[in-house]
Write a structure and sequence with these properties.
482 residues, alpha/beta, Ferritin, Rossmann fold, 9-stranded mixed sheet, 17 helices
């Protein structure tokens, strides 16, 4: 129903000089969608208040509502061209009046309210439309969207997810914010969160883990208490980058969470030794950034000092879990075998403070444009590791943009993991068999044929010399016959 509208919006953005990348497309679509969503939300709340015979106090004042400046209507319900701003007047209004007004909500609202989220979002956004005529076209298209029914919200969330996926596939920067949803869903099915759990992602990006966790739990809601918990207490995130924060917040809103608990902050700036019990979570689901380098002052917040961002996040996640809590974290597969002091110390801490019960080895190409192989670590905090179950995922094809990971690829892993079943691609390793000096966790499938040992350079050179000698003898004989 709304798919063509989204395509038309992309066409408008493609022609707009201020928007040059898929990230720009998502960012500009996000603030337009948010304001339209807010207008529909206000209209629904006004109707509910009227039916309940109670006063209604709108969030936005009259002059800054979508229905006043974005899509004013005449008596027939059509766009009122006499009142609708366009061209330079529209750009001037948005940049000089609308955005400053919306940004001001952060300073005059309480945290954890939708008003505060408005201020947070627009403090991080910039209007990149340079043509008021293009912006008018985009406003008219977005005005065709409706956030009234659950079916409409579901369709819009699907379309927005598709836009985020496209952004993730567009290049390295977009890929930072996108984790393949089939992998996320499989991780959630293994962890099995409940409607009493507090779930956390400290590097939430586009909030894929939190949105999928919401969908998983929403299907299990049985009471108003469950619904209230899911809306207000269940899902928590932090995100450092401004664009990702905006996209994640919008994504959660489209999935049905009115005031997402996402904090715009650098998670790693918090000293992990200062985390208190009240701040801990039941479940951690995350895919922290790969390959980042953190400054020395950030490293001081962690017992194990390292510039590797993902290793700092893993320390943060372990300490953010309560005793008995469950974690599922994506990390580069080199974590399993790196011999530097930080890698060895972190593996030792993970094995001793948590039960690392599962290691999922993902194939090359799982993450578009990332160029790294990854594993997923599944662990429970509070007891040391005794046995690790490994699973090597083999989808039977090369993964890529036109052939991405799908839910069917993950089905065998989820089924086998439930009982730690052994097979050609799954096996177990006793923790006491690991090298106590390195705690090496390298994925070595005992069921796969052993690869032929590589020859040493000296052996290869000897072979070349032998072949050269034989060739010389053959040439000498040929010359004798001539």
């Amino acid at each position: 129903m709304f798919e063509q509208v989204f395509r038309n919006i992309d066409d408008v953005l493609w022609k707009e000089a201020g928007c040059t990348t898929e990230l720009d497309y998502v960012e500009q679509t996000s603030w337009l969608l948010f304001l339209k969503y807010l207008d529909d939300l206000e209209a629904n709340r006004a109707i509910e208040a009227d039916l309940a015979d109670r006063p209604f106090m709108p969030i936005l004042d009259a002059a800054h509502r979508w229905s006043y400046w974005g899509a004013p209507k005449d008596a027939a319900g059509k766009l009122d061209h006499n009142r609708a701003l366009t061209g330079p007047d529209l750009i001037d209004y948005v940049n000089r009046e609308l955005f400053p007004y919306l940004q001001g909500f952060r300073g005059r609202s309480e945290p954890d309210t939708i008003e505060y989220k408005i201020g947070e979002i627009f403090a991080e956004l910039k209007n990149k439309f340079t043509s008021g005529y293009s912006l008018r076209d985009a406003l008219d298209l977005v005005d065709q969207l409706r956030f009234g029914s659950q079916a409409e919200k579901h369709e819009l969330s699907e379309l927005y997810e598709a836009k985020i996926r496209k952004m993730g596939n567009a290049g390295r920067n977009g890929g930072e914010y996108y984790t393949p949803r089939p992998l996320i869903r499989a991780m959630i099915r293994v962890v099995k969160p409940t409607l009493t759990d507090r779930i956390y992602d400290g590097a939430c990006g586009s909030a894929g883990f939190l949105c999928e966790a919401y969908d998983y739990l929403n299907a299990r809601v049985k009471s108003t208490r469950d619904k209230e918990w899911l809306q207000t207490q269940a899902l928590h995130g932090k995100e450092k980058k401004s664009l990702a924060y905006v996209i994640g917040t919008m994504n959660m809103i489209l999935h049905g969470i009115d005031a997402p608990n996402i904090i715009h902050a650098n998670t790693l700036s918090e000293n992990v030794l200062d985390i208190q019990e009240k701040d801990r979570f039941d479940v951690v689901l995350a895919n922290p950034p790969f390959g980042g380098k953190e400054r020395p002052e950030i490293q001081q917040n962690f017992p194990i000092k390292t510039g590797e961002t993902a290793y700092l996040f893993l320390q943060h996640f372990i300490r953010s879990l309560r005793a008995g809590g469950t974690g599922a974290v994506v990390i580069k597969n080199t974590f399993l075998s790196n011999s530097d002091n930080a890698s060895v110390a972190l593996r030792k801490e993970l094995l001793e403070s948590c039960n690392l019960h599962t290691v999922l080895d993902m194939p090359q190409g799982t993450f578009q444009g990332a160029g790294v192989k990854t594993v997923v670590l599944f662990f429970e905090k509070g007891e040391p590791t005794r046995r690790i179950w490994y699973y090597r995922l083999d989808p039977g094809r090369t993964l890529g943009k036109t052939n991405p990971l799908n839910d069917a690829d993950m089905a065998d892993f989820v089924a086998k993991q439930a009982s730690f079943a052994r097979g050609l691609n799954s096996w177990s390793v006793a923790a006491d068999s690991l090298d106590p000096a390195t705690f090496d966790l390298t994925v070595r499938n005992p069921n796969a044929p052993e690869a032929e040992a590589l020859r040493s350079p000296a052996e290869i050179l000897d072979e070349i010399a032998r072949l050269d000698t034989e060739s010389a003898k053959v040439l000498a004989r040929v010359k004798e016959l001539l």
